[in-house]
């Protein structure tokens, strides 16, 4: 497994790479990528970190698994590669942005533009086997991404955490809410959105209001 992280993340997470669980995880991922088609491609497994250095993190969005369809996953949660049709959750994210901050639906679903502004788009599990949702869960990724969230919570201040749905809320349960700004709502998936648990959350404008209040640049959604 190619560990490609910005040097600032290596400084923060180097201890994790030496732990037994991470070595077992590395062996598992190498085996899966050798014997099965897996996503994202190997060089994009750590794209969330590569595009958003530790010292630049202003916002964290927590997803669950990478997309498991051909060509979709690019290492950023909810994001798809250029030219790929938008999955339903991403469509609902863009619809909320359209109403909330009056922006048109973009042509591309590639959210690298967010990551480059300081939005860490972190899936709980960073890899998946093709067409098998959840196939790489409980192999160590969740331990690693819990450590990432804990490190941000402990070391930084005034980060906006966007927790969408029950899974993300549970994942973010240990965030220090005295130091950080946490917004919670339903998941953008149609199942949740159609029950009235997503639309109208205004997380994108609320994020920018908070960032502006502490003197940080707003996110161009």
Layout of helices and strands:
Layout: H1 7-17, H2 20-35, E1 38-39, H3 47-51, E2 59-63, H4 88-101, H5 112-115, E3 119-123, E4 128-129, H6 141-155, E5 160-164, H7 165-171, E6 181-185, H8 190-193, H9 203-213
Parallel strand pairs: 2-3, 2-5, 5-6
Antiparallel strand pairs: 1-4
Q: What structural class is derived from the secondary structure elements? A: alpha/beta
Specify Rg, calculated over alpha carbons.
17 Å
Our count of helices gives 9
Low-confidence stretches: none
- Average of per-residue pLDDT values: 96
Helix percent band: 25-40%
Order of helices and strands: HHEHEHHEEHEHEHH
What form results from the Cα inertia axes? globular
Terminal CA distance reads 32 Å
Indicate the proportion of strand residues: 5-15%
Q: Strand arrangement, largest sheet?
A: 3-2-5-6
Main β-sheet, in a few words? 4 strands, parallel
Q: Tell me the number of strands.
A: 6
């Amino acid at each position: 497994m190619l560990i490609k992280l910005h040097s600032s993340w290596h400084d923060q997470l180097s201890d994790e790479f030496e732990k037994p669980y991470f070595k077992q995880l590395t062996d598992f991922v190498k085996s899966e990528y050798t014997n099965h088609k897996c996503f994202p491609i190997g060089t994009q497994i750590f794209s969330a970190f590569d595009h958003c250095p530790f010292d630049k993190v202003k916002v964290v969005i927590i997803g669950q698994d990478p997309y498991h369809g051909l060509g979709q996953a690019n290492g950023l949660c909810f994001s798809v590669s250029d030219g790929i049709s938008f999955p339903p959750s991403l469509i609902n994210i863009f619809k909320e942005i359209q109403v909330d901050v009056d922006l048109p639906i973009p042509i591309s679903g590639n959210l690298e533009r967010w990551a480059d502004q300081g939005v860490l788009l972190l899936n709980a599990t960073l890899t998946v086997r093709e067409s098998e949702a959840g196939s790489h869960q409980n192999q160590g990724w969740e331990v690693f991404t819990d450590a990432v969230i804990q490190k941000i919570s402990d070391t930084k201040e005034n980060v906006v955490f966007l927790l969408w749905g029950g899974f993300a809320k549970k994942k973010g349960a240990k965030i220090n809410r005295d130091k950080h700004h946490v917004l919670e709502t339903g998941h953008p998936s149609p199942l949740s959105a159609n029950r009235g648990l997503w639309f109208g959350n205004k997380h994108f404008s609320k994020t920018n209001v908070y960032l502006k209040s502490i003197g940080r640049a707003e996110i161009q959604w």
